[in-house]
């Protein structure tokens, strides 16, 4: 479903009026158009389902690696910078760092694809918890591996700039699938890789 830029412009203009400002004054005259363009960019991921995102980045390489069900080797990409908007307040979730790990099962995904998946998933009205599950689902689909971990650290302006106003508060979430849930050796190695 495409973003309706015309409706966004109309609603932003109405919001400016509702806030008691004049949308025709010099500083605000082009604001509805600017916001509509920004929303097309920052909410691009809303145009696609997880299955469609997986199809976009479904380029893997068949590899005969020594990764197996019996060892604890995995691929990890750390500190992927993303931002998103909280669906509860439409407030910015920022300074977010995503870590994605998976155990390859005969095929590997290009490392930049992992970052692109995280970026596209974040470009939706989201919850931090759902960002992790969406990334895990897409990485599972693309790699064919059920052994996936997604760890996220982020700040939420709905908590730092309003409400309780705890500016140093960070939220950590983890999504563990397959052996990352059950294999203590894998969990230990993941924990060590995070430090």
In short:
It contains eight helices and seven strands, in the order H-H-H-E-E-E-E-H-E-H-E-H-E-H-H.
Structural account:
The chain is built from eight helices and seven strands; from the N terminus they run αααββββαβαβαβαα. The relative contact order is 0.14. With 195 residues, the protein is an alpha+beta fold. α1 packs across α2 and α3 crosses α5. The mean pLDDT is 94. The protein has a five-stranded mixed β-sheet. It has a two-stranded antiparallel sheet with strand order 1-4.
SSE order in H/E notation?
A: HHHEEEEHEHEHEHH
Give the helix tally.
8
The radius of gyration is 20 Å
Give the low-confidence spans: none
List the quaternary state of the chains. single chain
| Mean pLDDT rating | 94
Strand order of the largest sheet: 5-2-3-6-7
What keywords describe this structure?
195 residues; two-stranded antiparallel ribbon
Helix and strand layout, with pairings?
Elements: H1 5-18, H2 31-42, H3 50-56, E1 60-62, E2 75-86, E3 92-102, E4 107-109, H4 111-122, E5 125-126, H5 128-143, E6 148-156, H6 157-160, E7 171-176, H7 179-182, H8 184-194
């Amino acid at each position: 479903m495409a973003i309706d830029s015309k409706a966004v412009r109309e609603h932003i203009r109405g919001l400016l009026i509702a806030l008691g400002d004049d949308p025709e004054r010099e500083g605000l005259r082009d604001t509805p158009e600017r916001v509509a363009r920004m929303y097309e960019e920052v909410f691009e991921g809303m145009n696609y389902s997880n299955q469609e995102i997986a199809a976009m980045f479904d380029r893997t390489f068949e590899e005969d690696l020594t990764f197996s069900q019996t060892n604890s080797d995995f691929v990890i990409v750390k500190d992927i910078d993303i931002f998103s908007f909280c669906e509860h307040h439409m407030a910015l979730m920022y300074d977010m760092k995503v870590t994605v790990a998976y155990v390859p099962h005969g095929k590997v995904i290009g490392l930049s694809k992992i970052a692109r998946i995280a970026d596209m998933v974040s470009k939706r009205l989201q919850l931090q918890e759902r960002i992790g599950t969406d990334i895990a689902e897409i990485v599972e689909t693309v790699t064919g591996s059920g052994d996936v971990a997604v760890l996220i650290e982020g700040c939420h302006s709905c908590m730092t700039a309003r409400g309780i106003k705890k500016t140093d508060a960070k939220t950590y979430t983890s999504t563990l699938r397959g052996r990352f849930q059950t294999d203590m050796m894998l969990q230990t190695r993941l924990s060590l890789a995070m430090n």
